[in-house]
């Protein structure tokens, strides 16, 4: 296995819209990779090959929030950049709510983004630092004025803190049903499901850390009632148990065991 993975931060003025750049160049055994649910939309620009999903092959794409694993078939070589967009980034870059992309992925050209230019410039750039600077420049051109609704922004933050949906609804002065409908229209998932995804994301992040805790420790730290609850939720969102995912996916995701990992 030959894995190069470089992480970079966007320009400060872009961070309300995109939180992280991840450059990758990987030679592994051919197989299927699971794209896991998270609080971020995923924008990918390949520098070689395509991202092969069940509904098509994409040289560039943006995928919305989802509550189950996205299966990505690969031939063993993958090379490109993945960008983690916030839901507000969908409005800033593409002029639409994240909810319109929920559960699917579309080519960047379908979003009126300069897909060809972006891919060509990344291919021509000599270093990861240069590639991340290209992303900054292109995203900076795409940004349009956006206004975030206070109630929805508050609900998102409170869900991230683990607050119950009924409590959040009372805080914003809406019924639970109205909150769920408005939240799903904006983000694509209901508050309850988004809470599950955020808890899963935290557990996933803990398992990918340099010092890996036990599954029991992860379950307790992330607020699962017990190990069985943790396993059920993980299987529902990932399509595998935590143990199965660690065995088959963790080296691919983390990239630290057989290649270079850097942070810019």
TrEMBL record:
Domain HTH araC/xylS-type: 149-248
Keyword Transcription listed: yes
PANTHER family membership: BLL1074 PROTEIN, HTH-TYPE TRANSCRIPTIONAL ACTIVATOR RHAS-RELATED
Lineage of the species this protein comes from: Bacteria, Bacillati, Actinomycetota, Actinomycetes, Pseudonocardiales
Organism: Lentzea flava
One Pfam family it belongs to: HTH_18
InterPro entries referenced in this protein's UniProt entry, alphabetically: AraC_XylS_family_regulators, DUF6597, Homeodomain-like_sf, HTH_AraC
Keywords: DNA-binding, Transcription, Transcription regulation
Transmembrane segments: none
Stated name of the protein: AraC family transcriptional regulator
């Amino acid at each position: 296995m030959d894995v190069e993975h470089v992480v970079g931060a966007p320009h400060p003025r872009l961070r309300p819209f995109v939180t992280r750049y991840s450059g990758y160049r990987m030679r592994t055994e051919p197989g299927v990779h699971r794209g896991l649910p998270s609080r971020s939309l995923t924008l990918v620009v390949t520098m070689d090959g395509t991202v092969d999903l069940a509904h098509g092959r994409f040289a560039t794409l943006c995928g919305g929030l989802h509550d189950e694993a996205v299966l990505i078939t690969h031939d063993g070589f993958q090379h490109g950049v993945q960008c983690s967009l916030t839901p507000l980034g969908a409005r800033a870059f593409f002029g639409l709510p994240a909810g319109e992309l929920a559960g699917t992925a579309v080519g960047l050209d379908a979003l009126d983004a300069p897909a060809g230019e972006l891919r060509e410039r990344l291919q021509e750039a000599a270093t990861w630092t240069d590639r991340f600077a290209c992303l900054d420049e292109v995203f900076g051109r795409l940004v349009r004025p956006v206004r975030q609704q206070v109630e929805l922004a508050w609900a998102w933050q409170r869900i991230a803190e683990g607050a119950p949906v009924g409590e959040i609804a009372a805080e914003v002065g809406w019924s639970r049903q109205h909150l769920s409908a408005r939240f799903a229209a904006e983000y694509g998932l209901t508050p309850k499901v988004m809470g599950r995804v955020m808890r899963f994301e935290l557990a996933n992040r803990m398992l990918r850390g340099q010092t890996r805790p036990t599954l029991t420790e992860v379950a307790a730290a992330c607020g699962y009632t017990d190990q069985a609850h943790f396993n059920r939720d993980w299987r529902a969102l990932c399509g595998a148990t935590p143990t199965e995912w660690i065995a088959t996916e963790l080296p691919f995701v983390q990239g630290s065991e057989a290649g270079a990992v850097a942070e810019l």
